[in-house]
Amino acid sequence: MDLLQSSYAPDDASSPEESAAASSPDSSPLRLPSKSAAPAVDDTALALSAAASASRPLDPSLHLVAFNPTADQLWAPIVGPQHPHAPISSASGNRNHKLGHVEDAAVLPFLFDEQYNTFHRFGYAADPSGLHIVGDAQPQSPEPDTVYNLAPSEHKRRRLQAKADNQEEPLPPEAKNPASEEWILHNKQSPWAGKKEAPPAELTEEQKQYAEAHAAKKAEKEARGEGKGERAEVVVKSTFHGKEERDYQGRSWITPPKDAKATNDHCYIPKRCVHEWVGHTKGVSAIRFFPKYGHLLLSASMDCKIKIWDVLGSRTCMRTYMGHSKAVRDISFSNDGTKFLSAGYDRNIQYWDTETGQVISTFSTGKVPYVVKLNPDEDKQHILLAGMSDKKIVQWDMKSGQITQEYDQHLGAVNTITFVDNNRRFVTSSDDKSLRVWEFGIPVVIKYISEAHMHSMPSIALHPNSNWLAAQSLDNQILIYSTKERFQLNKKKRFAGHIVAGYACQVNFSPDGRFVMSGDGEGSCWFWDWKSCRRFKTLKCHNGVCIGCEWHPLETSKVATCGWDGVIKYWD
After folding, report:
1. pLDDT value, residue 83
2. Which residues pair with 343 in a beta bridge?
3. What digits encode the pLDDT tens for the residues 43-99?
4. Gap between the Cα atoms of 173 and 483, Å rounded
5. Residue 354 φ/ψ, nearest 5 degrees
6. SS3 content of the chain, % helix, strand, coil (to 5)
7. Which of 29, 114, 118, 476 has the fewest Cβ atoms surrounding its Cβ within 10 A?
């Protein structure tokens, strides 16, 4: 036991009190000293290498660092020359400017513009920190002025001071006279400002002759009423081109043949062109068959003329009506065909006698009429409706020549007028991309149709059964609306495939209602089946735009088309 205690005894000699305390039963147990079984390692070389690494800079080409570098080592500059063909290091690859690395600064655009303009105006500016002033010039006050916080009076004072500093010598007395050259030079104005007018040079003989000819032309134009914005008076005249205006029985040339009647109840699609009417010098804008019989065809053109053609007999031009000074926009027959309306871009609406070619009356509001219609009722054939360019539908009583009603709700030029519901109502379309339904004689809209998907509808046709409206939409489709109380869109019927965007191509029905047809912007005439909405046939009709198409009311397989090439074609 004594030997065991002696082995655990401490190496150093301790005092008797310490040994007594350690041997007492109340003291804590003895702790054995730690002993390592590993051999001793000399870490002098490791310490020296760490000290050397801490003192030398990092090699930027290293991908692995065996010790923890300090911040000073990470941001220390590269020491020593670089090999010209050495690979790009990370330090040189971080350049985003030819002079080094440029950091983005969070500066408001207003503050940057303020300092930028101040530097170019006064020659100094504050750096982004706001503590220092940069530039050759120095501010005159402790608080540097900028272009935005400087008073207008100070701007003026500095401008005058700069002007005075630039003047090395006093101004001569001539510089105070605005009519002198010195004043122009010192005030830096246009060399033509303040110059005296030179005496007029004499005209040569050629110039005198030209001036006299110009004055003569101007006087002649003013004598005709064309000068100073006045419209020239157009001489209304008509020329008959047929053999005789009345036959041996005294019948007029517009009298329909007695044996004219429908040959078949079913309509068929035409296949070939059987005749061409060429007489207009410009594009044809509209064609209309004679009501009920179709033995005559009326055409309106951009050459300011209206012509009527024979369809059943000689197929020649029968009469030319000349009364408009500008292009004719629309035409419309009366119920019996003895009279018709024409609307032109000369802002006039003329009521013609079909047989004699005389103008019965003329109406105008000072605006361009886009569409004209007579009330289809037999007892209201003296009521004229016209859709104008000033967003109004104007109603005239042609007996008195007075405007009896104005329908003013549209937000754009009115394009079409279509009577529905036994002529008690009519539907109008406009450039405001909407449809409006009116009670005849009451200027209050009873139905307003406007959807986000709708486009302008420059042509509307009524189905022969009077239950549907076909509207030519400028998004290259034909939409069908009901003529019942709600005037709903029929989403199951839609006719598409043609290109009409930008053109007011006419849409129409066959007399039996089985086919829908329309011209397009590429000169073709399209035919669709009414029930299936499928394209039935396409005819290449004109070189330009095929603007109008009409189905013959009696001969059920014949169609007339017109285009901007000035030709009217008859198809069978």
Report:
1. 58
2. 330, 349
3. 776 666 666 666 667 777 778 887 788 887 777 777 666 655 554 444 455 677 777
4. 88
5. -65, -40
6. 15, 30, 55
7. 29
Q: What is the CA radius of gyration of the chain?
A: 49
What is the CA 144 to chain-centroid distance, rounded?
Answer: 49
CB 115 within 8 A of CB 125: yes
pLDDT classification of 234: cutoffs 50, 70, 90: confident
Which 3 state secondary structure label does DSSP give 72? helix
Q: Please state the pTM of the whole predicted model.
A: 0.61
Compute the distance between CA of residue 233 and CA of residue 225 in angstroms, rounded to an integer: 8
Most confident of 184-188, 212-216, 374-378: 374-378
Mean pLDDT of the chain: 83
Q: Which two tokens stand for residue 61?
A: 């080409």
Instruction: Give the CA count within 13 Å in the CB-facing half-sphere of 407.
Output: 31
Beta bridge partners of 416: 429
Surface-to-core class of residue 473, CB atoms within 10 Å of its CB (0-12 exposed, 13-18 middle, 19+ buried): buried
Residue 411 burial (CB count, 10 A): 11
- Count of residues making up the chain: 572
Backbone phi and psi for residue 221, each to the nearest 5 degrees, phi listed first: -65, -40
CA 480 – CA 482 distance, rounded (Å): 7
- Distance (Å, rounded) from C-alpha 529 to C-alpha 537? 9
CA 559 – CA 572 distance, rounded (Å): 7
Closest C-alpha among 440, 467, 446 to residue 380 = 440
CA dist., res. 99 & res. 376, Å (int): 86
How many CA atoms, within 13 angstroms, populate the side-chain half-sphere of residue 204?
Answer: 2
Q: How far apart are CA 71 and CA 499, in angstroms?
A: 73
Spell out the alpha helix ranges (H) of 9-108: 16-23, 44-55, 71-74, 90-93
| Positive or negative torsion for Cα 216, 222, 223, 224 | positive
Distance CA 230, CA 455 (A): 37
Mean local confidence (pLDDT), 193-203 = 59
Residue in the structure block whose two tokens are 């246009």:
190
Collect all residues with Cβ–Cβ distance below 8 Å to 61 and sequence separation of at least 6: 86, 87, 89
Contact in structure between 352 and 361 (CB atoms under 8 Å): no
pLDDT of residue 569: 94
Q: Are 481 and 489 in contact, with CB atoms under 8 Å apart?
A: yes
> pLDDT exceeding 90 applies to what percent of the chain?
49
Contact 282, 303 (CB under 8 A): yes
Q: What is the pLDDT of residue 20?
A: 47
> What was the pLDDT predicted at 228?
45
Angle of CA points 510, 512, 517, to nearest 5°: 20
The tokens describing 214, both together, are 């110009």
